[in-house]
Write a structure and sequence with these properties.
Layout lengths: L2 H12 L10 H74 L2 H59 L4 H52 L6 H12 L3 H11 L1 H11 L15 H22 L9 H16 L18 H11 L3 E6 L3 E4 L2 E4 L4 H17 L8 H7 L2 E3 L2 E4 L2 E7 L5 E7 L15 H48 L5 H72 L1 H65 L6 H12 L2 H11 L8 H5 L5 H14 L7 H11 L1
Antiparallel strand pairs: 1-7, 2-3, 4-5, 6-7
Helix pairs in contact: 1-17, 1-19, 2-15, 2-19, 3-13, 3-14, 4-8, 4-13, 5-6, 7-11, 8-11, 8-13, 15-19, 16-17, 17-19
């Protein structure tokens, strides 16, 4: 029975009389009992159903809440990104505002000034390293002398107790030691001689290179610079002819070559592949080129390092000497040219860009033949100077000024990208030709690590300091060996005397006793002398250790100063980069800011949508919770009705009649009682049979009918509510 039908039935019964209630009480009770049992089952099922709806609504609410939390986190993150991007944009705008040509020039000047500070600090480190090296040599010498003194002391202690057999053994050992010491002295004397020659050579290099660097410069005229820039920008035949005219060709090269200062101190025979000589040559060449680049208006400079020089030697050996590759040939026109396959292979091996220039080097052209000149420092420096001058002013024809282009291009060389940090290595092949290898140094290939100082005097002085330290060490070693030789010779004499004395002891007991006493006294004296020497050498060693520690501390302090200066230089270089790239930095910051704002807008929209879903889920949860409370209330009422009906005694009809009579006196309760009891009246016909039926509508009708009966123990408000419903 649906709710509408249930309300109408209640109304019909509500206006009936109580006649026959007592007579029909038993029948009504039985029918009502069946109805309440069915209603209890229905209401309990309704509670479970509505509780499941609450659980589902709660799960939907939790899911919506999680979505809101995630959306809120995304909004917070996007907001933070906008704040960060805004700060970056403000910084970029401020940087753009100060990126004037004057400020860029000022920052560039500061970089140059700081570079001087770094060079000075680097020089200090180099000088202090030389001091440490010298102190280490002194310490090593003191250590060796202390060790020698310890050995002498041990020998003296052993000599206090000696017999004829021991004396013979000592003589043999002493003679062997004397022989070894003599050989060591000869070897160390040769080392000293070599070291002295190295010092002389280094001193010559120091004086000669410093003098040559200060006097051997190549200056370009303003007209030449203009013509060269025009040609490199547009290598037309007209611009090439104009450049050739201004450059003056071979005549001007001869004029420059005549300006090369010849000094007797340069006429020292050297090996071009010696690291010391190679460093001097590469620094000399780089300084000549950087001077030219500065005149040309370039701010980037070439560098030089030991690693690049080693790479240059390795390349020339593998791809020219070992392959018998004669770049110029015997006449200058029959050569094989550059080994391009070798250049490509070596570039792949090092993982960097390589370019190569080459010059006549140590050769002079005589009757169409190339002959090797005497390899002196003068020849090498002149070769470098002459080659660079020729590349500038006599480089037309088939070369098309490519050598000049390699010197003055910035970022590319001969149309090849990847030359942003150029380091120059100098090497000579077995034919005497000079090779100038240009490498792009990166953090990956580390070719620029431990770069040479381009301060010629500092670099040359470092070479001299190292050579002097080597000489000092060799002299100290010679001194030690000489001392050891003297000790060894004395030991031989002593052992021979001791052995002879012991051998002659059988001639006379008195003589033997006297000799033994003399030997004992001599041994005691030797022991005391050795002990004093040992103590003296130990003190000298301790002093040398202290001095070494002090100079090492000074070196560390100088290194710290250098690191600070380099950090400041890097900071200034970064400032120049920021000012120079202000437009690009501003554009990137603007784009990042706009993207961050767009991301925030999307995140905010997602949050608002999630909040709407959360509100819907919250409303659904509230409705489900209200429904379950109503279902519980209906179940409680059904339980109370069942308890009241089951509490009546079916056999006590008199009591039932009394109850009916009592109910009759209570207008509101009587109506509810009659409404319920009428469900058992056979005169109701079809309506009577609907109350106990199953099904959604019928269950609800039965429950609502029992609610009316439940008014016996309830307040009157619910009945009034039903009456209001009835009147509609």
């Amino acid at each position: 029975m649906n709710k509408k039908k249930m309300i109408r039935l209640t109304a019909l019964v509500g206006v009936a009389t109580a006649t026959g209630v007592v007579a029909e009480a038993n029948q009504a009770h039985a029918a009502t009992t069946t109805t309440t049992e069915t209603t209890n089952q229905t209401t309990n099922a309704s509670v479970e159903s509505t509780q499941a709806a609450v659980d589902a609504a709660q799960s939907a609410f939790d899911t919506a809440q999680t979505s809101v939390d995630n959306a809120q986190a995304n909004v917070t993150s996007a907001s933070n990104n906008v704040t960060s991007a805004s700060a970056t944009l403000s910084s970029a705008i401020a940087n753009k505002e100060v990126a004037t040509s004057e400020n860029i020039a000022s920052a560039t000047s500061a970089v140059s000034s700081q570079a001087v500070v770094v060079a000075s600090a680097s020089q200090t480190v180099s000088e202090q390293a030389g001091v440490v090296s010298a102190a280490a040599s002194v310490q090593a010498s003191a250590q060796a002398e202390a060790t020698s003194a310890t050995s002498a002391l041990s020998a003296a202690e052993a000599a206090l107790t000696i017999d004829q057999s021991t004396a013979a053994n000592n003589l043999s050992a002493a003679e062997s030691a004397a022989s070894s010491a003599s050989a060591a002295v000869s070897s160390d004397q040769a080392a000293v001689d070599n070291a002295q020659a190295a010092v002389a050579s280094a001193q010559a290099i120091v004086d000669a290179v410093a003098e040559a660097q200060s006097s051997d410069v190549i200056n370009m005229s303003a007209a030449y610079i203009t013509a060269l820039k025009n040609y490199l920008a547009n290598p037309s035949s007209a611009n090439a002819a104009a450049l050739q005219e201004v450059a003056k060709g071979a005549d001007y090269v001869k004029e420059l070559q005549q300006k090369f200062k010849s000094d007797a101190s340069l006429d020292v025979v050297v090996d071009p592949s010696d690291p010391t000589v190679q460093e001097a040559l590469s620094v000399y060449a780089v300084n000549l080129i950087n001077h030219l680049r500065n005149q040309y208006g370039l701010t980037t400079a070439f560098g030089a390092s030991a690693k690049v020089n080693v790479a240059a030697l390795d390349f020339v050996k593998n791809y020219y000497d070992d392959e018998n590759w004669n770049i110029f040939g015997t006449t200058g026109s029959d050569g094989q040219g550059h080994n391009k396959n070798g250049l490509n292979a070596y570039a792949d091996q090092l993982g960097t860009s390589i370019a190569e220039d080459a010059g006549s080097g140590l050769t002079t052209w005589v009757n169409g033949k190339a002959t090797m000149a005497t390899t002196t420092l003068h020849n090498l420096l002149y070769a470098v100077y002459s080659d660079i001058a020729t590349m500038l002013f006599d480089d037309g024809g088939t070369n098309n000024w490519s050598h000049a282009q390699s010197i003055f291009e910035d970022g590319t060389i001969l149309g090849t990208d990847g030359f942003n940090n150029v380091y120059l290595g100098v090497a000579f092949d077995k034919y005497g030709y000079a090779h100038y290898e240009l490498y792009n140094a990166t953090e990956g290939n580390q070719l620029g690590n431990n770069a040479y100082s381009l301060d010629v005097q500092t670099a040359a002085q470092t070479l001299l300091t190292n050579a002097q330290a080597t000489l000092a060490s060799a002299k100290a070693s010679l001194q030690r060996m000489t001392t050891n030789l003297m000790v060894a010779k004395a030991a031989v004499v002593a052992a021979q005397d001791q052995l002879a004395a012991l051998e002659n002891s059988s001639a006379s007991d008195s003589a033997a006793v006297t000799a033994a006493r003399t030997q004992l006294e001599s041994a005691k004296t030797s022991y005391q002398t050795a002990l004093a020497t040992y103590q003296q050498k130990e003190a000298a060693l301790e002093k040398a250790n202290d001095e070494l520690a002090n100079v090492q501390a000074s070196l560390e302090a100088a290194q710290a100063t250098l690191a600070t200066a380099k950090a400041k230089l890097a900071e200034l270089e970064e400032t120049v980069a920021n000012l120079t790239n202000a437009d690009q930095l501003l554009a990137a910051a603007q784009a990042a800011y706009e993207q961050a704002v767009a991301n925030l807008t999307v995140a905010t929209g997602n949050l608002e949508a999630a909040q709407v879903d959360l509100a819907k889920a919250e409303a659904q949860l509230a409705l489900a919770e209200e429904a379950v409370e109503q279902a519980k209330a209906r179940a409680e009422i059904a339980t109370q009705v069942d308890q009241q009906l089951n509490g009546s005694n079916a056999n006590d009809r008199q009591s039932a009649g009394q109850d009916a009579t009592s109910l009759k006196t209570n207008g509101r309760a009587l109506t509810a009682m009659v409404a319920t009891a009428s469900a058992a009246n056979p005169k109701r016909g079809a309506d009577q049979g609907r109350l106990p039926q199953t099904g959604a509508d019928n269950q609800e009708a039965s429950a609502m009918a029992l609610v009316g009966l439940g008014m016996l123990g309830m307040a009157t408000g619910l009945y009034g509510y039903k009456k209001k419903k009835l009147t509609k």
